[in-house]
Design goal:
Helices cover 22% and strands 27% of the residues. By secondary structure, the protein is of the alpha+beta class.
Length: 529
């Protein structure tokens, strides 16, 4: 059966653009929704992959808890947009996702707030298709947003284009540099030297296919491509391109070098280690089949603003949490960073960064501490199950209409591992998979939270230990030889004030993060969590 909506009439009344629709497909009678309704009229133009076409969009949103009727005026947005189909492999699905720009009457970009999200002009309408729970991406964005300053915000909605009901969609912010999004410095064309050239950059690891960006290759690993995301290649000066590519190369050289564990000469001065840990936790928790090697974002601010390479935010988790039937991604066991060992024939592979980082006991212990802390609350099974259940309930009436428009419940869609006969079966599978995967990581994530970190200096026979390390604030320093000076530094080499009575160290007043403790001429890494 063809599921379409016939447009009865379109007319302007003052500033409001009304669309009257009547269901033409059996059980669905789309007259109103508990979700915002987005209506797009292309004036019979076909929406293409590229370029964007100019058309109009209206949004009906009568605030939370109120019904939204298709005959209501456009009270959230009523104006011009430019729209195109988005995605690469996702374009194989009949339910398309879209990128659009809000524009003024002259076709210029118009920064505006939509559905309560901060002002911008770049937006995404994401239509979940192989993810039949309709919430895997949103779950990930919600969780990561509580772990870091920013994660893509989103609003569920229902979409109508040219009188045709297209189902449940999510309006999502794009990942870009913005005071309300990734808040890093703006690069101007004259920022070509000194501190000004050091930030801000957003790059990503991805396959060049389907991307408008230009990539460069890692000099340390085959099948590893970095893309200029924001600013894009053509927006950067040659000096700026050279700076960011050299910075990444220097980080990789330090990471793969013989002194990579050294807190001064190793990898730590180049990266925000905590962000790499959180990135790894989310990728492994979701067992994301594209994890690490696609849609993996990172950014760098200016050095004067603690501009280390920072991983995140998360993106594109629809084939995660047991929703992919290839390359072992459906298993609750094993690790996704080992993807290349399982599926070596892919054109892009995860960076070997995490394999190398796990050779550092300090990284392993910090990983275990962070995971243990998150599992006590945010990532607890009960907390995640509650989020899934409440979101599924919120989507209940819209998901029913969605699966009448797209009748794929009980049918295999690339690349489903599990095929539920009902929406509730899809939800139950996700909850069970999450619970089992989290238990596996509880028992198998490497490292021991609170274990001592030991460093033996080549010029001395003494061995110095800190325990516990990582610490929540207090730790004990022990040595089998006398020492004279104790100093604490940030990873940038700046002195940090702390309290100690030689053996007992108190850093409870300091922010969480990584520090360097120097005992005479021996340097130890100290982690505050």
């Amino acid at each position: 059966m063809s599921h379409t909506l016939q447009r009865h009439s379109i007319y302007f009344v003052g500033l409001f653009f009304f669309v009257f629709l009547q269901s033409n497909y059996g059980q669905v009678n789309f007259t109103d929704s508990n979700l915002p309704i987005i209506v797009i009229n292309t004036n019979d133009q076909e929406i293409l992959d590229d370029p964007k076409i100019n058309c109009r969009m209206g949004i009906i949103w009568n605030t939370e808890g109120e019904r939204n009727n298709i005959t209501d005026p456009y009270n959230d947005y009523d104006g011009h947009i430019g729209i195109e189909i988005r995605g690469s492999t996702s374009q194989q699905y009949p339910k398309k996702s879209y990128s659009f720009e809000t524009r003024d009457s002259l076709g210029n970009n118009l920064n505006t707030s939509i559905l309560g999200l901060p002002k911008e002009h770049d937006w995404i309408l994401y239509g979940a298709y192989p993810d039949k729970t309709l919430l895997r991406n949103e779950l990930t964005y919600s969780v990561f947003g509580q772990m870091h300053d920013w994660s893509p915000r989103y609003v569920y909605c229902e979409l109508v284009i040219n009188g045709e009901y297209l189902g449940l969609y999510t309006l999502i912010e794009k990942i870009k540099r913005d005071n309300d999004r990734i808040d890093i410095a703006t690069l101007d064309n004259d920022d070509n030297a000194g501190d000004s050239i050091t930030g801000g950059y957003i790059i990503k690891i991805d396959k060049p296919t389907g991307s408008s960006s230009i990539s460069w290759s890692s000099t340390h690993q085959d099948k590893l491509e970095f893309l200029y995301h924001d600013p894009k290649y053509l927006e950067l000066t040659p000096e700026q391109r050279d700076y960011i590519t050299t910075y990444v190369d220097d980080f990789e050289s330090a990471l793969y070098g013989p002194d990579f564990k050294d807190p001064i000469d190793g990898y730590e001065p180049y990266i925000n280690v905590e962000s790499f840990i959180d990135f790894m936790i989310m990728q492994e928790l979701g067992r994301t089949v594209d994890g690490y090697r696609s849609s993996s974002f990172m950014y760098k601010d200016k050095d004067s603003k603690d501009g280390k390479l920072t991983c995140g935010p998360m993106w594109d988790f629809n084939l995660s949490y047991g929703n992919a039937d290839y390359c072992d991604a459906y298993l609750i066991t094993g690790y996704q960073y080992n993807f290349a060992e399982v599926c070596s024939w892919f054109s892009v592979e995860p960076p070997n960064w995490w394999t190398r980082l796990l050779e550092d006991p300090a990284y392993r212990n910090a990983l275990d501490c962070r995971w243990t802390t998150l599992r006590e609350d945010l990532l607890s099974t009960s907390s995640i199950h509650q989020w899934i259940d409440s979101t599924a309930q919120y989507l209940d009436e819209a998901q029913q209409r969605n699966f009448i428009k797209w009748p794929i419940l009980g049918e295999y869609v690339n690349w489903n591992y599990f095929v539920g006969e009902t929406y509730q079966e899809e939800i139950d599978y996700l909850k069970e998979w999450y619970a089992d995967r989290a238990i596996y990581l509880d028992n198998n994530f490497p490292g021991t939270c609170g274990a001592a970190t030991s460093i033996e200096d080549d010029n001395h026979t003494s061995q110095i230990q800190l325990s516990p390390n990582p610490t929540s604030g207090f730790c004990t320093l022990s040595s089998d030889a006398p020492y004279h000076e104790i100093e604490l530094y940030s990873l940038e080499g700046k002195p940090v004030s702390f309290h100690h009575d030689r053996e007992q160290l108190d850093i409870s007043h300091l922010p969480n993060g990584f520090y360097i403790l120097r005992v005479d001429d021996v340097s130890l890494r100290l982690v505050k969590q």
